[in-house]
Each structure stands twice: as C-alpha cells, then as structure tokens.
Amino acid sequence: MNSDDVVAREQIRDVIHRYARGVDRRDYDLVRSCYHLGATDDHGPYKGGVDGFVAWLTEQLARWSVTSHTMTNILIELHDDRARVETYAVAYHRTIVRDDKPLRDVTAGVRYVDDMTRVDGVWAISRRVVVSDWVRVDDVPAGSLDPDDPYVKPRAFPHDEVYRPL
Questions:
Q1: 28-34 contacts, C-beta under 8 A, 24 or more apart
Q2: CA 73, 54, 81 angle in degrees (round to 5)?
Q3: Per-residue pLDDT for 72 more than 90?
Q4: Measured between alpha carbons, how far is 72 from 131 in angstroms, rounded to an integer?
Q5: CATH class of the domain at 3-155
C-alpha cells in the first residue's frame, strides 16, 4: 500500500464519521457534504437523491429524542478514484418522552454499502445502500432516567458541545 492509498483511506473514513456526526447532531449540511451532487441513497423506505434523502431524514429524526450511530468495521476496496466501502454500524434511537407512550430504545445493526468516488480530490458517496442486518426494540423501565443526571446533554446543531469554538 502506498502513501496515496493511506491518505485516500483516511479521507474515506472521515466521510463515514462526518456522516454519523451529521445525523446524530442533526447537522444536515454536514450530512449533505458526505455525498456528491447527483448521488443516490437507498435507505429502505427512502430511495432517491440526496436532497430528498436529507428532507426525509429530517422528518425521521424528529421521532427520536436522541440517536447515536457507532461506525465499526470499515472495509475499503480502492480502485483508483473509486472505492467500494462496507461499514458496519450500530444505530441507537431513543423515542421522545410522551405521556401516552412508553419510552423505547430501538437499536439496529446495519451495513452501509457505499460506492465512493474522488472528484477534484474530494472523496464522497456516489451511491449508498443500507442493509438492515437486525433490529431490537426495548422498553426503557420507568424511573430508570435520572432527572438530576449531571452530564451535559446532547443537542442539535449548532448548539451541541462539539460545535463550541476551540
């Protein structure tokens, strides 16, 4: 493996990790930046272009109080300015607290199968297919959330701690 391949692999991993941050922080411009113009996304119920995907994602994420996407195994097969990238992910979703519905955690094991291309030196997704390997739904027991929890809470873009100026 030469140094150009090492750089390409790190740039591709950066796309994957920026996507996770964008989704979990509801930073839709960051999500959009992970795709090339004209890219497509097959996210199960949504299949189509990036602008439609971001609009769909915005609606879907409104259902959850918090999400956390953990990207694990990232296998990158480089072919010059193209790459096939398979990323295993565990996606955690917590429902919004409502009086009439129990609090639930939905956890999904998925694989993002991406065709990425390098255009003008920039790697981004050209085509994404999400493969759903498994899903688990758990009720959150009453009283298990500590209202006095001292930790900083996650917030949407641009208010989350990660966006605080350095």
A1: 28/54, 28/57, 28/58, 28/157, 30/157, 31/57, 33/124, 34/124, 34/125
A2: 50
A3: yes
A4: 15
A5: alpha beta
pLDDT of the residue at 162:
95
Residues 99-152 pLDDT 10s: 777 889 999 999 999 999 999 999 999 999 999 999 999 998 876 777 778 888
Q: Can you give the residue ranges of every domain in the chain?
A: 3-155
Dmax over Cα atoms in the chain, in whole Å? 58
For residue 75, what pLDDT is reported?
98
The structure tokens listed for 162 are: 């990660």
In DSSP notation, the chain reads --HHHHHHHHHHHHHHHHHHHHHHTT-HHHHHHTEEEEEEEE-SS-EEEHHHHHHHHHHHHTTEEEEEEEEEEEEEEEETTEEEEEEEEEEEEEEPPBTTB--EEEEEEEEEEEEEEEETTEEEEEEEEEEEEEEEEEEPPTT-S-TT--SPPP--TTTSGGGS--
Say whether pLDDT at 94 is over 80: yes
